[in-house]
């Protein structure tokens, strides 16, 4: 079987950990974010969902609201339920049990049991049987692993590092369940998570006979179904890995009178589509990234060397006033000032680029010991992002990858870029973050940067919907 490389090894050797300059830059970014934030804004605007509310919101997001509100399920929801694996169904049932317990405390009618929905006439008529049995998962994993191992076995004989095999035709949570039974899945603990894992290996996965599907290939209707399946699979996987992640939600924030900075991504994209139809990311961000690719990739210390704060404030005001009129000139803008504007644009979004709902789960990925399990969760999290956020993240990671590829000229390796950009994505005034608590500074910076490093290194894998190219696809999708 042919294999496809998702992340080829970089031309230059990557340091095994961030150096002193990277760590200093990390805390410089953190200090900048703190100075730009309002006092106590995160505590005022963010809170965890109340007892039972977490499970109710989760069931609604997973497309399982009939289990909560007693509505009759439609065919699509019945089909979704019928495709769940044993591990996924167990994760759903845990949320139902927790929600039912909360309802009983409030003397309300308990939610339905998931087996009642599986046994409903509409589910049985929509899909007569499910093909995601545990024996099938075992056979698929053994078959794919054996074939892929033989494709790269020559590397071992040559003394090279073995590539990681990324199995995509078995649900991620089922893979973890099988590995747990075989005692092959590393246990998550702080010592393992902080170990030096050296250079990141190449990750390969097979070419599917049905081809590959990316998020951009699917309609909004199909992506809604993908997100429901991804949420269930991710939750089941996190349960198996022992990750307890609670979502936060924010109160409505006052949107500043601005055209560019501090404006919700969805509003920016919607407004820009009136100017340029079919645009996927804000036009300002497109222009800024294009400028940095032309002028900044060869600039030594790009992203790390701070721009002039006074010039940045002036530039921001000028852009707000004249960007859309086309009268703003980039000729006199320095690459370092432009890079500062990029980081400022990301961190001043009214909600995190990685969303309030999932930012804590992104952060929790650093507590997973196994690389492939980390990538499984990240892949599902990317699919869960709203379309404007997902497209913006993709454009940002593609630019950061180009910065790393130009390391010989700009002296910015993968660790440097990751360490500097991590605070701008993982620290946000709308969500309290564990990255900012007291503790060993070196450990915090490394753990935060490690997530960013994975996002940049394996980004090609994260936009694929290849996991759903199995027996689920013909049942759930209609337009592909």
Automatic annotation (TrEMBL):
One of its GO terms (molecular function) is GTPase activator activity. Residues 142-155 have a biased composition (Polar residues). GTPase activator for the Rho-type GTPases by converting them to an inactive GDP-bound state. It holds the Pfam family RhoGAP. Residues 1-20, 32-65, 126-155 are annotated as: Disordered. Keywords: GTPase activation. This is Rho GTPase-activating protein 40-like. Residues 263-463 form the Rho-GAP domain. The gene is LOC107558140. Residues 32-50, 131-141 have a biased composition (Basic and acidic residues). The lineage of its organism: Eukaryota, Metazoa, Chordata, Craniata, Vertebrata. It comes from the Eukaryota. GO terms for cellular component: cytoplasm.
